[in-house]
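Objective 1b. Sequence-to-structure analysis of Olfactory receptor family 8.
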Amino acid sequence: IDFSYSSAIIPKMLMSFVSRKNIISYTGCMTQFFFFCFFVNSESFILSAMAYDHYVAICKPLLYTVTMSPRVCLFLLLGVYGMGGWGTIMHTGNILFLTFCADNLVNHYMCDILPLLELSCNSSYMNLLVLFIGVAITIGVSIVTI
């Protein structure tokens, strides 16, 4: 997953270095943001699933095969990508409803949520609220596994 979210940004970044233009279109920005956000969210949840797996392997080694059956592993994996997809759809969906004053070009090589919120004409209160709730859930799940 580390390779995946790096590869969501690097092609556009390399094109920007060669062409010396740090401009990305709105559709390219949304595509890049969706995949980057999906892989980052999924990675944080997969670390939690791995922590649970390691906990069971260390603390209950005799019950490991019963506790971590293939069905439980499948549910953990589906939960990881389901939560990653849910968080990504929430962020990307809220950004898609923003209206922008100028043209559909973002003056960055990487599409991030804060530059997009700065470019919007209407209020970005709901986007910031969803952002903080999503970050709180992601950090909360990660802290629970510690």
